[in-house]
Amino acid sequence: MAARPPAGQPATTEGATGRTTSLHVARRAGVSQTTVSLVLNGGGGKAGLSPATQEKVRQAAAELGYTPNNAARNLRRQRTGNLTFLCPDLGNPYFAEVIGAAQAAAAEGGYLLDIIAAQDEAAKLQAIARLRGGISDGVITTAPTTAIWDALRDLSARGIACVTLQDRGDDPAIPAVGVDLEAGGHAATRHLLALGHRRIAHVSGRQSFPLRARERVHGYRRALEEAGLAPDAASIVEVPNSMAGGAEAVAQLLARGTPLPEALFVFNDNMAIGALHALHRAGLRVPGDIAVVGFDGVSLGAFSTPMLTTVEHPRAELGRLAAESVMARLNDPARPAPGALLPGRLVVRESCGARGAAETGKGGARAA
Amino acid sequence: MAARPPAGQPATTEGATGRTTSLHVARRAGVSQTTVSLVLNGGGGKAGLSPATQEKVRQAAAELGYTPNNAARNLRRQRTGNLTFLCPDLGNPYFAEVIGAAQAAAAEGGYLLDIIAAQDEAAKLQAIARLRGGISDGVITTAPTTAIWDALRDLSARGIACVTLQDRGDDPAIPAVGVDLEAGGHAATRHLLALGHRRIAHVSGRQSFPLRARERVHGYRRALEEAGLAPDAASIVEVPNSMAGGAEAVAQLLARGTPLPEALFVFNDNMAIGALHALHRAGLRVPGDIAVVGFDGVSLGAFSTPMLTTVEHPRAELGRLAAESVMARLNDPARPAPGALLPGRLVVRESCGARGAAETGKGGARAA
DNA sequence: ATGAAAGCGCTAACAT
DNA sequence: ATGTTAGCGCTTTCAT
């Protein structure tokens, strides 16, 4: 798109600000600004500009190293051609894969994707405030608190397309794309139950979802109840959402003085890796002494020792659908944008103690 | 900064485009647009606006849910207040830490940081083309190829401040911030030599640095030579830069039919984790059968089995210095912006076979 | 087949 | 202490 100057050497500019503008190109090509705009935006053919004129313009633009000014273009067009991904945790490779797919889908739809890192609520609100200024046409984000939902609704009302990742709200204008966490938590727990474990603890991410019900936990509880276990069999440890947090959870369980659970269902794979590590340090064997199942299927789990059994999320699908949903809304603001609730997939590896390390479908391995 | 509408409910707007502009605020407050601009940008005090007027303006802005339009503001100001981080690999947590620090430093300097993911050269060039349009005031990026350097020089000549991460070029206007990879590679290799290993292979990232000399390798070679080993003792395996690549390297070494090296110096920790995993799969014990040293110090290495000995990069420092360098240039375009070459730090854990798992200083553990 | 002119929303120099 | 005016660089009717 942007023409390159002859040889890395920037061409001399003329304007008041020192920047080369479309007017300079026009003068050099001996045409009007209109023509330049038409040609450079591909409308030259439609408008019936002669090939000669088009060539002159392109030539001049290339010679001057002209690049259109984004601010001016956006101001005039009242849109940016950008989508923004508000990332809650850059350190978790989970999002890298979601973002990659979102970016690819955006590119296909003619949009460019940029990312803003915003871990805590304040950062997210600040980022949303930036978005209100029109820096982007749409946003993909998580929305864990009511304040963020309020801000998103406002954003949406201003014509900026919003879609949430995982978090579901009540505004039909803001669809959600996510995986069925309840079913996932249920599948993970049921798998452990099927392997004969009874005392199964859940390691949860602290403060991860202040607003929404913790669906993994519901699935976990439901599985326990279905197995005829008393509700108080549920044992939940809350720790920070990180590898260190996972290790901390194990430390807490160890410090309790009560016998260790037979199995752990962990909030996500990152934390599960931390738990695996702490268990190893403590001289416990996984899955021999204690079984572990993670959640989300980040590639890291395939490289741990032992390899991690997990409920894999369709991360690329998530990213693609999110981007497509945003673009659908942008293309037709009237029609309600589509959301999606995708199934997770139980991936049986080593850490759960099932013999066959084959990967089974979502139904859960009937291993034991 | 951005005022919130009364109760999540967007206030009725008036303008032709449906957006609330500063003119609406002005009318509502019974003042001029100038006054609104002054007040909302904090210049109200300096310009000597009466507190009453200021209050009126703020009131009106809040009531209308006014947010300044970014495109218009940027166009007028000829700057954006943004910095951009061009991230070559979102999946590697290495960059998450660098970005976090860069973002914090940017915020301190009054800038906001956004991120563009650009893995391959084409994506990077496209991103730089976007930057030429003035979407950001400065950029932090890697610059592994000549085409990218050309594009960066052009960008820099247009007044957009550039700083590279790790890659050093010859343009004084584009400083580099990085760690001393040669010294790091030397320290890692010397550590392995000091532990008594002689046949030490290097697992390198394929195509990682088409342009620049691979400094890790130089350090590696230098250490071998200093130990009196013949230059051809150097054995280098090139694989993709990923965990899977690290595993692949081990597979290649195994397939050679020759005896396995006594030790591996791996390009980065991510790849080293993959190598660790493959070695474990192959029934080899680390460090018993083979020692492994990684590079970069990503937190993951502290949670692997065995824990990874590595050369830790000061990632937060890197990010902070990069952002500060860009801002320094922006604040004073005349003065040459500062670069930095920071030392890595050998962190001795388990995978190398040194007994004491204590972390030693950069000089390298005199362990064996 | 091409050009002239207006205006997107904002800020800042210059009045008053 | 506040208002008037011009213009950032672009796109897009509308006119020729």
TrEMBL record, chains A, B:
Biased amino acid composition, Polar residues: 10-21
Annotated region (Disordered), positions in chain: 1-21
Swiss-Prot/TrEMBL keywords: DNA-binding, Transcription, Transcription regulation
PROSITE patterns: HTH_LACI_2
Start and end residues of each HTH lacI-type domain: 20-77
Pfam family, one: LacI
GO MF annotation terms: DNA binding
Matches recorded under InterPro entries: HTH_LacI, LacI/GalR-like_sensor, Lambda_DNA-bd_dom_sf, Peripla_BP_I
Protein name: LacI family DNA-binding transcriptional regulator
